[in-house]
């Protein structure tokens, strides 16, 4: 079984090649535009390569030498002073270089597309024609899938485009909800509008009258006609009686 591919990161070559922000933009900008490296890795390289970490050793050694000179004892001889200053300076230089290596190591571990970054570094080296100098090399192994899939951001874009059909399907539902809300508003306005006095009386009268089956309608009509006939007969009889009384009084 073959070994996994790895990113070979030569610290000295990277430091010399990307010594300023302008060089980083000139060399890595086309790689970023071509999609070889992700936006995350490109921004990280812009902020890291021309950074302050490249001078940790010099700063610490200079600061240590100045501290030894200030805090030296008057009883020290010149030989002892230079011995202490040299020892502490070399120790500070080694500590600074270790911190610089750690910062490069953290940068390599932060890359989210090491396969694309390794290909970009290889192309830049071939274009520059500069051989990698001897020095510390950081190795980072990555899976073959990362090299095949390429940029992580492109996969995020592909995943984000999947829910679009669902959004299109939900649009008619939202329109239906909005139309139903208008219907509810109209219904509430119609219910809230004041009715006229005649409508109120009519409704009250209809509620007060008991509802009877429809089958009793012919019988009710027949009873009503009989009552009208009886009333009419009684009224005629009463008129005849009044006439008779009036005629008798006139005769007397």
Question: What does this protein structure show overall?
Answer:
The chain has helices at residues 11-17, 21-34, 39-48, 56-70, 78-110, 114-128, 144-149, 152-160, 164-192, 197-208, 217-251, and strands at 6-10, 137-141. The protein is mainly alpha-helical and 252 residues long. It folds into two domains: 6-153; 218-252. A two-stranded antiparallel ribbon has the order 1-2. Keywords: Membrane, Transmembrane, Transmembrane helix. Residues 166-198 have a biased composition (Polar residues). Residues 157-252 are annotated as: Disordered.
Task: Give the topology.
Elements: E1 6-10, H1 11-17, H2 21-34, H3 39-48, H4 56-70, H5 78-110, H6 114-128, E2 137-141, H7 144-149, H8 152-160, H9 164-192, H10 197-208, H11 217-251
Antiparallel strand pairs: 1-2
Helix pairs in contact: 2-3, 4-5
Distance between the termini: 151 Å
- The total beta strand count reads 2
Helix proportion of residues, in percent?
over 70%
Note the beta-strand portion. Answer: under 5%
Q: How many domains in all?
A: 2
Report the total helices: 11
Largest sheet: 2 strands, antiparallel
Mean pLDDT: 74
